[in-house]
Automatic annotation (TrEMBL):
Residues 1-82 form the GST N-terminal domain. Residues 84-213 form the GST C-terminal domain. The lineage of its organism: Bacteria, Pseudomonadati, Pseudomonadota, Alphaproteobacteria, Hyphomicrobiales. SUPFAM superfamilies: GST C-terminal domain-like (SSF47616), Thioredoxin-like (SSF52833). It holds the Pfam family GST_N. This is Glutathione S-transferase family protein. Belongs to the GST superfamily. CDD domains: GST_N_4. It comes from the Bacteria. Coiled coil: none annotated. It comes from Bradyrhizobium quebecense.
Amino acid sequence: MYKLYSMQRSGNSYKVRLALAVLNTPYEAIEIDILRGESRTPDFLAKNPSGQVPLLEVAEGRHLAESNAILWYVAIGTPLAPESRIERAEALQWMFFEQHALEPNIGAAYFWLSLVKGGRDLQTHALEDWMERGYAALQVMENHLKGHAFFAAEQFTVADIALYGYTHVADRCDFDLATFPSIRAWLKRVEQTPGFVSMDWQPGAGAEPQARLVAGV
């Protein structure tokens, strides 16, 4: 069974939990609070020298870091990974976009404005850039979604999970999605996916999702 080291309120960690939930993949959840320095201990750094979550233990002593690499690993061989070469590349294209355009801006704003006490005052100098670049990323997504239901292969894939992680909390860190109707409709489609769980959901802490994208995986 996988061991997943993650932080409940982290968008990057949530992406992995969401994928595992949709796929009905069992795992042991280990909470790591990065705000308390729990990812900087010698024990954790021995597993992941970058000191970041999420981190997936895929076998005894073998760990995989970086949320989108983990997403791709768990998606291979399932409906979350497109079958054709070009569609897989398109999914990866959007996952790279998420990491260089969305996460550094909306993700950073969410972290500092929603999770860190006094973070707004500490990052006043960066907020304007985050907002400008974050809105630019949202516009790219909006333009794509005007003609597509999902981001790759015309179906729900890991690309959607990667982008959903921080887009769905954008309104918690000053971003207004009112002028992005296609994004708002896409968010609802993602939330209607069989097996979907919210960021607050924890394995064993409540009712299990009734339907899964893949049963018994």
